[in-house]
């Protein structure tokens, strides 16, 4: 039994074939009638066409005759001609056009029985259809003939293509174009990108899908004479710092101003929750203790203990959670705070967040009010390294004290000062003092009018850190000394 020749495409419509096909899946062409290709085919295809056999008449093209003017001769397109095969015979009328998308081209050379190299069998050749191919329903009509050329009959090979649109519809809404959406109700959070879509609970726009800035990425608060600013920085994916600033009154009516700044430990679990819990607990403790007459230094100590308890409570997770993630540390953070009264300046801390004193009269030197709980500070205190060598070491910022269930032992540090002149206390995380480590550097970065404009000064200091690289979260509070009378505001 003879075998059918192995073809990669239908000889009639160039539809791709699979091994074992007996009929074309597109036009139904009987593949068993295709003759076996000869071993030697001297015909050379040029630009997709086949040279006609010797002595065979070729297609008759209209003559391009100039009209004696500067107007060029009319251009004749292939679609304007009656289709012919290599022997010069007309193709049967109604020959279907090729598919709109170019089919895969067979690697085999066209045989001598194919029409003009386009894969159609020549009339009379084996396997050629007996009648004209039916015109598919809904197929586009032949285009009108170009100006200056004879009209073309509605038969032959189609070379034209449907016009393609210059622009394709977007797969998603364009955030640059606000759609006709109903006006959101008052108080509804609106997308910062398209200004039209409502923001869902996950922080994404329901219209354009844009992720919205998180509330903690940049925070500012101005409470009378004290102000604070916190920023995510330029490298971190979230802000793990937190702060609390407030004012209260002592039992005798004199004012007391407080500021708490916390820095979440990034290597621990939920550092952002730890810093927020600690700052809130410490602030609430101070606001409750100072009006009762508790000494500010004792009140600061008790506030740090309350903050530690709040962070410890975050570690109360199910036992199964620890089994699935035993490598994770408990939530942890550092803390630094200051309380300013008309006579006293109190600071308290655990970790490596700092407080600086900058006098209003810059002719007197500034000072750092805290000592870090860090590897570098321990090396300097033990006399094993000087400060420059210790802080140049890669272990310099490894903290030795923090708030959290994994802390070795809670040792709140407090100190009390009685400045003899006005000034400000700069309470900050290492995201700022990394760019102004020495007290003199911090004083140089602080505006001269900081005592009168604490919010502006806090913004300037955050900008100083961002300009320096912003490698970490940046948080700073500016507290004027002495505490001004109740009700005094910030510029």
UniProtKB/TrEMBL annotation:
PROSITE patterns, A to Z: PPM_2
Protein name: Serine/threonine-protein phosphatase
Biased composition (Low complexity): 61-75, 111-122
Bias (Pro residues) ranges: 93-110, 123-147
Residue ranges of the region described as Disordered: 40-185
Domain PPM-type phosphatase: 225-481
Source species, domain of life: Bacteria
């Amino acid at each position: 039994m003879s075998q059918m020749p192995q073809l990669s495409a239908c000889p009639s419509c160039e539809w791709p074939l699979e091994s074992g096909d007996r009929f074309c899946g597109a036009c139904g062409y009987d593949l068993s009638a295709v003759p076996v290709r000869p071993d030697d085919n001297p015909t050379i295809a040029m630009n997709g066409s086949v040279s006609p056999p010797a002595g065979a008449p070729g297609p008759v093209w209209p003559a391009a005759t100039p009209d004696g003017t500067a107007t060029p001769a009319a251009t004749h397109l292939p679609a304007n001609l009656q289709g012919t095969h290599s022997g010069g015979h007309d193709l049967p009328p109604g020959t279907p056009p090729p598919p709109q998308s170019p089919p895969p081209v067979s690697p085999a050379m066209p045989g001598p029985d194919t029409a003009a190299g386009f894969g159609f069998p020549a009339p009379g050749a084996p396997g050629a259809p007996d009648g004209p191919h039916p015109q598919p329903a809904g197929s586009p009509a032949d285009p009108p003939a170009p100006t200056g050329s004879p009209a073309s009959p509605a038969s032959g090979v189609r070379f034209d293509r449907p016009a393609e649109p210059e622009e394709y519809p977007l797969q998603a809404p364009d955030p640059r174009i606000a759609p006709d959406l109903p006006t959101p109700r008052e108080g509804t959070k609106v997308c910062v990108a398209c200004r039209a879509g409502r923001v869902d609970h996950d922080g994404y726009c329901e219209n354009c899908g844009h992720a919205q800035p998180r509330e903690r990425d940049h925070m500012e608060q101005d409470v009378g004479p004290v102000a604070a600013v916190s920023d995510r920085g330029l490298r971190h994916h979230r802000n793990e710092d937190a702060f609390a600033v407030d004012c209260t009154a002592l039992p005798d009516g004199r004012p007391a101003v407080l500021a708490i700044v916390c820095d979440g430990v990034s290597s621990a679990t939920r550092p952002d929750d730890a810093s927020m819990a600690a700052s809130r607990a410490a602030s609430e403790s101070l606001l409750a203790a100072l009006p009762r007459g508790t000494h500010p230094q004792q009140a600061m100590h008790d506030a740090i203990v309350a903050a530690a308890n709040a962070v410890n409570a975050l570690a109360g997770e199910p036992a199964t959670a620890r089994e699935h993630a035993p490598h994770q540390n408990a939530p942890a953070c550092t803390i630094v705070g200051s309380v300013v009264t008309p006579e006293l300046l109190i600071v308290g801390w655990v970790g490596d967040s700092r407080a600086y004193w900058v006098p209003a009269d810059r002719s007197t030197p500034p000072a750092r009010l805290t000592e870090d709980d860090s590897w570098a500070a321990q090396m300097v205190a033990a006399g094993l390294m000087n400060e420059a060598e210790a802080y140049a070491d890669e272990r310099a910022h490894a903290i030795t004290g923090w708030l959290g269930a994994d802390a070795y032992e809670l040792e709140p540090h407090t100190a009390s000062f009685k400045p003899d002149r006005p000034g400000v206390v700069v309470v900050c995380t290492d995201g700022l003092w990394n760019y102004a480590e020495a007290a003199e550097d911090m004083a140089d970065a602080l505006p001269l009018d900081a005592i009168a404009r604490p919010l502006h000064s806090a913004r300037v200091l955050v900008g100083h850190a961002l300009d320096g690289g912003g490698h970490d979260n940046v948080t700073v509070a500016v507290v004027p000394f002495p505490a001004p009378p109740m009700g005094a505001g910030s510029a």
